[in-house]
Fold:
Amino acid sequence: LFAPIAPVTTLRAWLQWREIRYDGAMAIPLIIDTDPGTDDAIAILLAFASPELEVLGLTTVAGNVGQPAVTDNALRICDLAGRPDVPVLIGAAAPLSRPLRSATGIHGIDGLGGLDLPPPSRAPACVDAIEYIVETVRYRDGVVLAPIGPLTNIALALRRAPDIARRIARIELMGGGIATGNVTRAAEFNIHADPEAAAIVFGSGAAITMYGLDVTHKAILGPGDAVALRATRTAAADIAARLIDRPHLFRPERYGRPGVPVHDACVVAGLIQPGLFDARSGRVDIVTDDGDQLGRTRAVFESSAPNSRIVENVDRDGFAALLIERLGATPRWPARG
Ligand SMILES: [Ca+2]
Structure:
């Protein structure tokens, strides 16, 4: 399944081909680094449905589930969206220095909430995700990285090629939480999964926007949104509805309404419609010492050495409307045989 397929002459030639193909487009060139992941799936579908973004590639990282399942899921999502042109590249199989602890309780054994999508129609690209990130950032101007899983791949790329930190236009990431955690009281899953990687990324000097639990716990989509999504009768919206409408995950006592936080889609929505979100500048540091604070994102807002924009609020209804509008405008893809 993961044997190399179509010979890619050289990575550079291939990137050149893509650039020619997209020449003239004003879209933001974007690499989504992902561990699909139910909310990853919604984020990727939203990106594919949005002309403001040019999705250059999907790089996969072990997180919600392990390798090769995350890669398999990324390919399935491309198939679902009719995007065989978007390369999927295999990244890290484990955090930098810790064992992987996946999140199958939320995302299901398969990582996609038991959606049971057809097997992928193709194999991943025969270029390693780390090399792909490094070369793409060096070669293309203005590349934005959107890591929506543990930060292992981004840290490995920065470690291999520290020069890319100033070439990356922005790192717009889902992770952390100033006021709250989810995997522990102190820490959010993506940061807790690989705190050493997070420390490298936040310390890299790259411009970072952090969509943490402070905002994603306000980006709650529920049964009413699922009804609106289904009413559009598109495959992408239907998949999103199925991933949102899982009542066993609803925690109205915590989120103030029935529904699930669609964490990763916040990053993509923020790239498309920044006005939906409020952020403050600050300095974020990562707790890497073992103990009950492990993986915490500590923020200082009035810092003289800020390293991040910390996103705190979202217009929930606007966020829901964007998702429904975009996914609802996608083709009614024929069911695969
Ligand atoms: Ca994710």
